[in-house]
Amino acid sequence: MFPKNPFSTHEKTALVLAGGGLTGVVYEMGALRAIDDLLIDRTVNDFDIYVGTSAGSIVASGLANGISPEVLLQAIDGTHPEIQPIKRQHIYNMNSRELMRISMRLPRTLTSAWAHYLRNINDMTFLDLLWSLAEILPSGIYDGMALEEYLRKMLTEFGQSNRFDDLDRDLFIIATDLDTGDRAVFGQGYSNDVPISMAIAASSALPIVYKPVKIGDKEYIDGGMRGNASLDLAIEHGAKLVICINPMVPYDNSDRQSIPFFGPDGGYLSEKGIQAISNQVTRIIGHSSLHYHVKHLRRQHSDVDIILIEPHADDFQMFFYNIMRYSSRLTVARHGFEAVTIDLAEDFPTY
Q: Are residues 126 and 68 in the same domain?
């Protein structure tokens, strides 16, 4: 719940944006447009602290640079007169160099693996054979450096900054150190010499989808591997009001009647195959971890107000859109705006 005016005191406020792929980015933009409409004499660019993880780091970096949700949405749909629209090739740039290198040793690897399987056929399963072929797979399908280049140009050419030290507000971007599994923080007081665009690329390097991002002598992957929203970081830096937007929630299919394409008799999620199951499992893990995190922080910091904004559990549209689907970006942004607007309007006396 919002205080009557979340910016009316001198206490610090923070906006924490969780990950959720491309659909998470545009959902958060739409939700922030709705919050902007609620605020009086303030905007979502007026928080003292911004914390972004994975997809949320893209939105958080724009807001910390003074770019409004409306302008960010215009960059997404290509209607802004000055900002180059984000295109498929910025997001889905094939990891060509690594794929080329792997293809050169593919015949030898296949021959060796098959020979090993035949020699140990009584002790090996088909899964063992597949595991022995794992080394021919790339570290990621796509290379996130195209996104890094786009963001670098957008921030610098639009008159903003790609340096943490130049910002008037605190910005923290979360990634995961691949070699240690530790949370890595980029921002003021941390690795602030790393460009913002590079920190975003590291934070957004979703395993398997994107190859790890190397910065210095370390490799980084998606920040969501260590928790989808680092609210504790905002509190450590003095925030007394923390608003968190989380676009990833597990779908509640308990009545099995609310998914249109299942037909009038409903259906189980498993009927949509392994993709639906893995999607649900990922959401369950991330959502339960986030809610445990929030519960712990509320108990530990009773003087801090924490507001969590996320889709309803029966929102099948947010569940069945592929989180990396480029073509659905405007539909999801509109859905996020409308859903959060309705929630805020219905509970306006409370907020």
A: no
